[in-house]
Write a structure and sequence with these properties.
alpha+beta, Deoxyribonuclease I, Chain A, Endo/exonuclease/phosphatase, 12 helices, 43% helix, Endonuclease/exonuclease/phosphatase domain-containing protein, 6-stranded mixed β-sheet, 494 residues, elongated, single chain, Endo/exonu/phosph_ase_sf
């Protein structure tokens, strides 16, 4: 018995040491399974639902592990394909950029060729025109070019007339401010931006002009004119009084050039009809109407400047003796009004006739059915509201429904002597009264009115060039038309 038991134990130990090597389905590692025979392994693996795992792989789910491995393998393949596609895209993009560069270079070459071709065509056309021109045309063209250059120079003179001083209105405003300075600043004077040498040259010319004027027995005026650095002494005709327009040619010219459409001057003392000073003060594109005192041409006088595009008609007034007047019917676009310029000498006494004559003139102008704009120097103190003379004049304005737009002093010694009076419906938008004593002893009055400019009318016009008409077809069309057929008596009766 004991011997048999010992034998059995030995056999079991030998059996424990024996086994079969199997492969893990999870990690594919071979390991020994003690106590398993080949027949047992074959029997176990015969079942498809049986899997063998090692100790390391037995801790995780086999299905998850298999799926994860397959996903990782698939992702790796996808990444490889994406890298290949990205590389192909980069190659295609580089090729497209190269093609675009070639196209842009081609377009640039075509543009340069087109520009060169256009320039060449223009030069050929110019050459053809030059070859077809005759000698007389060439001379005519050169002469015309010279005349145009002269015209441009003459225009530039008007533009640069006040280049250094600025506009005339600016100069007036500066003078007004200087007159309001304190006594401690009364010696301040305006000076232009000149160099030391230019000041010396100008002073010398002014002294020479003054000497010539003092020594001139004919009484001519000598003035320094010209651009800065290009001055010269200019001789004018016989001297007039300081109130004459002769002394204020540049001032009047500058005021009109600053944007005035109409300018009325009183007490001009221009003396002769068509005095050259009137033309010197008149800018291009303007015309004028003047009045000269018949019994005393050297005093009084009226001048009205206005643009050439304004239609006008000078109205004939009845004989007047207490004042001077010009009446003009102005048509500006579709606006029509009567401009009445008046001047009453301050030395003449005010009589009853002075009130009767304006009434007769205003009655005549009212019949013409147009608005009235009265501007002038009446030398009557309208600011004295209790004065019978002022009251009588205001009554006349009220009778004809006229409104005065000046209510401040207009003379250097005080008093409202200059008036701007209009019909109550005439649109006077603004009236600016400049300080007196700058241009003359009277103030310069500037008003703004509203003139509506109509919109231009356009029309479509169809024309046929007779040079392009086929004569044969035209004759055939006439012959085949009813016009060329003989008419019947019935047609005539109808």
């Amino acid at each position: 018995m004991p011997s048999r038991n010992t034998k059995s134990v030995n056999k079991a130990a030998a059996c424990d040491k024996e086994g079969v090597n199997v492969v893990c389905d999870g990690c594919s590692v071979s390991f020994l399974v003690p106590g398993m025979s080949d027949e047992a392994l074959t029997s176990i693996t015969a079942f498809s639902c049986v899997r063998i795992f090692c100790v390391a792989c037995s801790g995780s789910s086999p299905i998850e592990r298999i799926v994860s491995e397959k996903i990782e393998a698939g992702n790796s393949a996808v990444f490889d394909e994406m890298k290949k596609i990205e590389k192909l895209n980069m190659d295609i993009k580089q090729q497209i950029d190269a093609i675009k560069t070639i196209i842009d270079e081609g377009d640039g070459k075509l543009s340069r060729m087109d520009a060169f071709g256009s320039k060449l065509c223009d030069e050929i056309l110019v050459l053809k025109r030059e070859m077809n021109r005759s000698f007389s045309e060439v001379v005519k063209s050169e002469v015309g070019r010279g005349v145009q250059a002269i015209n441009n120079d003459s225009k530039s003179v008007q533009i640069t007339l006040n280049k250094r001083e600025g506009s005339q209105h600016d100069a007036i405003r500066i003078e007004e401010r200087m007159k309001t300075l304190d006594d401690s600043l009364k010696n301040i004077r305006l000076s232009h931006n000149l160099t030391i040498q230019q000041r010396s040259d100008l002073k010398k010319l002014l002294d020479d002009a003054k000497k010539k004027e003092e020594s001139c027995k004919e009484g001519f005026l000598y003035r320094v004119r010209g651009e800065v650095g290009k001055w010269k002494i200019v001789q004018f005709f016989a001297k007039k009084d300081s109130k004459s327009i002769m002394k204020k040619v540049d001032t009047v010219h500058g005021l009109i050039c600053d944007g005035l459409d109409v300018m009325v001057l009183t007490e001009t003392w221009h003396g002769l009809d068509g005095n050259f000073a009137i033309g010197l003060a008149k800018p291009p594109g303007f015309q004028f109407v003047d009045y000269i005192r018949e019994h005393d041409p050297g005093h009084g006088g009226l001048i009205v400047y206005f643009r050439k595009e304004f239609k006008f008609k000078k109205l004939t007034l009845s004989l007047i003796s207490t004042f001077e007047a010009i009446a003009i019917r102005l048509s500006i676009y579709k606006s029509v009004f009567i401009l009445l310029a008046m001047y009453r000498p301050g030395s003449a006494p005010i009589t009853v006739l002075f009130y009767d004559e304006p009434v007769s003139i205003l009655e005549y102008l009212t019949i013409l059915n147009s608005d009235i704009l009265l501007m002038g120097d009446l030398n009557l103190h309208v600011e004295r509201t209790a004065d019978p003379q002022s009251i009588r004049l205001k009554e006349i304005f009220d009778i004809f429904q006229l409104v005065n737009h000046v209510n401040v002093p207009t003379h250097i010694l005080g008093g409202t002597l200059d008036l701007v009076v209009s019909s109550h419906v005439f649109p006077v938008l603004n009236a600016k009264i400049y300080l007196s004593g700058i241009i003359s002893d009277h103030s310069f009055i500037k008003i703004e009115t509203m003139i509506v400019r109509p919109a231009p009318k356009t029309a479509m016009k169809s024309v046929r060039s007779w040079k392009r008409v086929d004569e044969e077809k035209f004759i055939g069309a006439i012959l085949t038309s009813p016009v060329s057929k003989p008419c019947c008596n019935d047609d005539v009766e109808k």
